[in-house]
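Hey, resending since the last one bounced:
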Amino acid sequence: MRKYRIRVGLDVDDTLYECNSYAVSIINNRYPDEEPVKVEDIKCWGASGRHSEERIQLYSDPEFVRTQPITEGAQDFVKKLSEIADVFFVTAVPACCMSARAERLIADFPEIPSNNIILGTRKDIISLDIMLDDGAHNISSSRAAYPVLFRKPWNTGLSGLLSVNSYDDFLHFCEMVRNSFSEKFPVLKNGGVLCLVGPSGSSKTEIANELTRREGFKKPLTSTTRPRRNTENEDAYRFISEEQFVREMKAGDYIETTVYSGYHFGTSEKDISPIVASGGVAVIPIDICGAITLKNLYRERAMLVFTQREREEAIKSIIDRDIDIDDKTRRIMSLDFEYRNSEVCDAAITVGDDVTEAVEKIVSLVKQ
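The structure tokens again:
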């Protein structure tokens, strides 16, 4: 069957070339007697962290643009992507840096035609099938059918956006979109992973808990830096500190990690593999970023089910939760983004006040 040639746009700074980390290294070399600035100190794109103004000035220096290191794996990533899509570089640089940026891209990525380099700051007027960018402000205003956020330390504050953690996850997502009209439905009868994806307040956790009361469904223990709610049992999650989570993440203990409402979540293979190997279904309430990672790992043995709930009911559920007002605000603000994620899931089910009907539908999907 014919495959569509999709159009994919790629941001450049901190997507293909090191930008913030390179600037931070330059700043630290200038001030060797000070405590080093860390990339993790940058909490948002722009003026954030120590020496932020000096760091931002570097982005307007043509020499900085000429010498930016290529992100590890970027050239191989672009080459693979160009085999399945028409690739466009969409990059915002000052006029004085445009020549330097174009020359680097042409030299480093020769498989991409030079007329596919789009220079300018108005990313919001560019229409593509898929767009990958580390700037949450660019993703939220993008006209792409599927704007995808590349997770970085400075964009973790906004939840609900379609997002990925790695080049490999993005490549798999592009394949999912390209093949969506001819993809076979996942088969979990011999074991697999069921990802419950949906907006906050859509009863994902309640559905997961109900499913685990059924034979063959088990919920692996997920680690999180989120505080335990008064309504939760101690074994609802593995509650750990952010410092411990970061240590374990760097040690490779998790097969997928994500950030939701400012808190880290991670799932380890040792918690999922025994369930799948025994022929069971691992049920995981998860955001779209983690779901795509698991889909990439388990392929046809992973099913993404979107839990669709009326917006008004979802907002009521968020308001009634035992969480602080800032967390409630972030969750409500992210609803529009989260509802769009249904398009990339294998199935969508409507959830009412009683989750029993939704659970029965999911059981039917898994067994078919």
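Residues 272 and 306 are 20 Å apart (CA to CA).

Sorry for the duplicate.
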